Amino acid sequence: MSVAKHHVMIKGVKDGLVFLLNDACDWQELLQELQHKLEKTHQQILTGPIIHVNVKLGNREATDEQKEEIRNVIKQKGNLLIQSIESDPPKVEVPPEPKVSMTTLRGMIRSGQTLHNEGDLLYLGDVNPGGIITSTGNIYIMGSLRGMAHAGSDGDEKAIIAASHMRPTQLRIAGVISRSPDEWGIEEAFMEFAYVKDGKMEIDKLHQLHRIWPDAPLK
């Protein structure tokens, strides 16, 4: 049976040889090719004085028995002295750092005007009745919100809308639309924020924000 010649690579290094063993192929095929290369294709360089050998298994986690099988094949060549048989350390998946993208704008949005933003938006000014402010992220308004605001416009229901004075004509978060402010049961809505809970929009005091973002890092 012919043996494929791509599962084992033998590289010369300063201190001897490194055997690079394929970590995805069948174990028996790997041993067969290792035997073949030691007996046939690399016979000339594997003769003579003692040569130190380090075996690299890639991502394969070999058992003690499998490592012993490798030793038995290699030690048939009397001049090869195995120094190590090692697997690569497991890769630790590091979660990506959340991207913090905050845009700060100032001014006044008048009736008939629309402001759209990508990411979180801090708006220093008022949104008048008939004015519209939208963002794919959170919206924080340091002023009066008396027009329409739409946060999480790309579908993010975790977005919030906060305002120093919250008397909007309409609030939207993703696809959720708020009730009329007259139905909130709040006469004067100062330092409020809107968020989605169980598919419905809720209004609460801004100092209660930690209840929905308990693990939010301090910036």
Automatic annotation (TrEMBL):
<dbReference type="Pfam" id="PF03775">
    <property type="entry name" value="MinC_C"/>
</dbReference>
<keyword id="KW-0717">Septation</keyword>
<dbReference type="InterPro" id="IPR055219">
    <property type="entry name" value="MinC_N_1"/>
</dbReference>
<dbReference type="InterPro" id="IPR016098">
    <property type="entry name" value="CAP/MinC_C"/>
</dbReference>
<dbReference type="InterPro" id="IPR013033">
    <property type="entry name" value="MinC"/>
</dbReference>
<dbReference type="InterPro" id="IPR005526">
    <property type="entry name" value="Septum_form_inhib_MinC_C"/>
</dbReference>
<dbReference type="GO" id="GO:1901891">
    <property type="term" value="P:regulation of cell septum assembly"/>
</dbReference>
<comment type="subunit">
    <text>Interacts with MinD and FtsZ.</text>
</comment>
<keyword id="KW-0131">Cell cycle</keyword>
<protein>
    <recommendedName>
        <fullName>Probable septum site-determining protein MinC</fullName>
    </recommendedName>
</protein>
<dbReference type="GO" id="GO:0000902">
    <property type="term" value="P:cell morphogenesis"/>
</dbReference>
<dbReference type="GO" id="GO:0000917">
    <property type="term" value="P:division septum assembly"/>
</dbReference>
<dbReference type="Pfam" id="PF22642">
    <property type="entry name" value="MinC_N_1"/>
</dbReference>
<dbReference type="InterPro" id="IPR036145">
    <property type="entry name" value="MinC_C_sf"/>
</dbReference>
<feature type="domain" description="Septum formation inhibitor MinC C-terminal">
    <location>
        <begin position="106"/>
        <end position="203"/>
    </location>
</feature>
<feature type="domain" description="Septum site-determining protein MinC N-terminal">
    <location>
        <begin position="8"/>
        <end position="85"/>
    </location>
</feature>
<comment type="similarity">
    <text>Belongs to the MinC family.</text>
</comment>
<comment type="function">
    <text>Cell division inhibitor that blocks the formation of polar Z ring septums. Rapidly oscillates between the poles of the cell to destabilize FtsZ filaments that have formed before they mature into polar Z rings. Prevents FtsZ polymerization.</text>
</comment>
<keyword id="KW-0132">Cell division</keyword>
